[in-house]
Amino acid sequence: MNWSNTAWQTGSPIYTQITQMPFIRELISGTLAPEKFTFYIAQDSLYLAGFGRALSLIAARAQHSAHALEFMRFAEGALMVEQALHAGYVQKLNIQPGVPLSPTCQHYTHYLLSQAALAPLEVAMAAVLPCFWIYKAVGDYIYAKEQLSDNPYQDWINTYAGEEFGQIVARAIRVCDEVAETCTPAQHQAMTEAYVTASKLEWMFWDSAYKLEEWPV
Ligand SMILES: Cc1ncc(CO)c(N)n1
């Protein structure tokens, strides 16, 4: 069995819980409070800036040029989305520059950056995989469930349920599987643990937006 099959199976209870979160339910029904979506977009733009840099770090560390190139493209994609989708929304939603990272956004972004910089390469790659895979699955789930013709969050839904993002996700999974081919069971285990940790942080990210999370002090 490919490493990615094990990872998906291990992480699937977390994915299922994400689909049941109020943030996701309300995105589907179009009833999500605008301030929650605005909070999410503001934090996600900060997240994408860190995520893109984590992907660049992994590209620099990749052992094979083909994998380095893939991660450079992923990094470019993340930063382009940050600029395009978010520049549009940031204007439309009137998000002010200089919004500080929420505690969860800081936790997630810095987890990815530290894994990218310091963890064994295969673990770093596994740590960023939920950002692709869970988003694709959640995007498809929302797209399949929603019934509104005028959902205010349609642009966002289309980005992650789209075919283009699906192909990027398939490539990220493939690189992880190629790297995992030459890894030991202990390395596979470490990869799966990083995958599960990042999946939990995905859950926390939606939750923090729904709660409009603030620093306690
Ligand atoms: C928190 C989060 N995870 C994943 C993605 C998709 O790359 C995103 N935009 N935001």
UniProtKB/TrEMBL annotation:
* Gene Ontology MF terms in the entry: thiaminase activity
Keyword terms, alphabetized: Hydrolase, Thiamine biosynthesis
Record keywords: Zinc-finger included?
Answer: no
SUPFAM superfamilies for this protein: Heme oxygenase-like
**Pfam families per record:** TENA_THI-4
Residues annotated as domain Thiaminase-2/PQQC? 12-211
Its UniProt pathway annotation is:
Cofactor biosynthesis; thiamine diphosphate biosynthesis
Q: Does the keyword Hydrolase apply?
A: yes
Give the enzyme's EC designation: 3.5.99.2
| Gene Ontology CC | cytosol
Class in the EC hierarchy, top level: hydrolase
Residues annotated as transmembrane:
none
Superkingdom of origin: Bacteria
* Protein function: Catalyzes an amino-pyrimidine hydrolysis reaction at the C5' of the pyrimidine moiety of thiamine compounds, a reaction that is part of a thiamine salvage pathway.
Record family assignment: Belongs to the TenA family.
> What PANTHER family is this protein classified in?
BIFUNCTIONAL TH2 PROTEIN (PTHR43198), SI:CH1073-67J19.1-RELATED (PTHR43198:SF2)
What name appears for this protein in its UniProt entry? Answer: Aminopyrimidine aminohydrolase
Organism equals Rufibacter tibetensis
